[in-house]
Amino acid sequence: MKNTIIFQKYYFIKLICKNAFDAKLLTLLAFVFIACDGFVDVDLPNSQLAASEVFEEKSTANAAMTQVYAKMRDGGLFTGYATGLSNLLGNYTDELAFYGTAQEGTVNFYNNVVLPSNSSVKSIWNSSYNQIYGANAVLEGVTASQKLPDSDRKQLMGEALFTRALIHFYLTGIYGSIPYVSTTEYQTNRSISKESSGRIYLHCIDDLKRARGLLSESYSAPDRTRPNRSAARALLARVYLYTQQWAESSNEASAVLNNTGLYTYENNLSKTFLKGSQATIWQFSANTAIGNTLEAQTFIFSSGPPAITALSPFFLSSFQNGDLRRTLWITSVTNGITSWHYPSKYKNKGTGTSTEFSIILRLSEIYLVRAEARAHAGDLIGSKEDINKIRHSAGLADTPAVSQNEILNALLQERRHELFTEFGHRFFDLKRFGSLDTVLFPVKPQWQTFKSVLPLPESELILNSNLNPQNTGY
Asked: Which of 162, 229, 277, 472 matches a 20 to 30 Å C-alpha distance to 397?
């Protein structure tokens, strides 16, 4: 963990200053973190602005938070590059098939032979805790601010808490027991211990409940690129689902779905992933003013065989006849002999005009979250109504499922077809349903039960003995 934490202040300075155009802004941000106790032993020169001043102005405080989002978009768990979960966990399960070379980092995920020395395991860990550090720095900075207007302080605190919960939620989903880092204090973090997934989820719930009370219901940025109260509710609904708090999950989901002043369900699947969709709850902006998504760059190919990956035959054969998601969200490429298919939820690979942003949270998932919570709580009619909402937009008739077990199985299939290649939903769903072994043993020759979690990075275990023991099987 020392390797992760000790340099994070330098890295956070870099990620903020990367897009800082104003000289004063750059000076403020460059010194905000190196001035903290425990990282430097000398005072700043008198000519330098105090570190705390970064969070005394709305522009610089917002710059700190928005650059955390930029870092999340460009690396770690949520990036649309091949190093992110959408590609890696798609290959790890049964969504994607690998076509690249042995040098590609994806191959070990596809073959289910991910080792503690794997570079992606280390990169995801380090990137994520760097981003958590950034969120904590913002949270501490705005909390201590003397001049920041109260409305801005609350918004930024809420965003930082939301971000911290989101990253920890995904980390525990892939690694199991992990540290929950809630401070920038180096001496605390250098020897921090792991906590169980159950404890991590409780921390996430606490953070999200605080965020829900702090965030504005309206969006503080155009294009829904900054989370609002509904984003916190949507994620809270998901965490409650994972902790089997069915009523709480359903209530949070309903609060989002009933917010018709902000959200409109998109029945036209061709418009679902456009950046102006009213079904989007939260999304990343593009990395340039005229750019589009990194997912399109990763998944789209124009000739075969694919350079890295394509949709797997197992996934392609799972669609019901007439499912518009198969028609509109999947594209075929052929060389006249063989055909390959790629996910085309995002269709704009080029630049010039931004038409698509990477969507992190959207209404369809929240309907499916509520459907699952309702099914477990015994509200089978309500659960089917939510499932059918998704099916109808896909051009399908009502689900024939009747019993609770049938409805839950139908729900797992709907999630498979609605959320494919979106941040590893398939992996987390199979894990939550207890179906990883049942589904993957027949199609993944090297699958083993203990691989329901990835190994902890061996370099971090060496630096911080409190992270031991290594996950079973590794």
From this structure: 277
pLDDT bin (cut points 50, 70, 90) of residue 52 is low
Comparing CA positions, the residue from 447, 458, 470 lying closest to residue 92 is: 447
In the chain, the N- to C-terminal Cα span, in Å, equals: 19
Q: Coil, helix or strand for 344?
A: coil
pTM score, whole prediction: 0.91
Exposed, middle or buried by CB within 10 Å (0-12, 13-18, 19+), for 248? middle
Taking the C-alpha atoms of residue 77 and residue 465, their distance in angstroms, rounded to an integer, is 24
> What H or E segment, with its residue span, contains residue 398?
none
CA distance 15 to 34: 14
Instruction: Look up residue 147 and give its amino acid.
Output: K
Residue 389, H or E segment: helix 380-393
DSSP 221-261: SGGG-S--HHHHHHHHHHHHHHTT-HHHHHHHHHHHHT-TT
Quick one: pLDDT at residue 301? 97
The H or E element spanning position 181 is none
Distance CA 452, CA 245 (A): 22
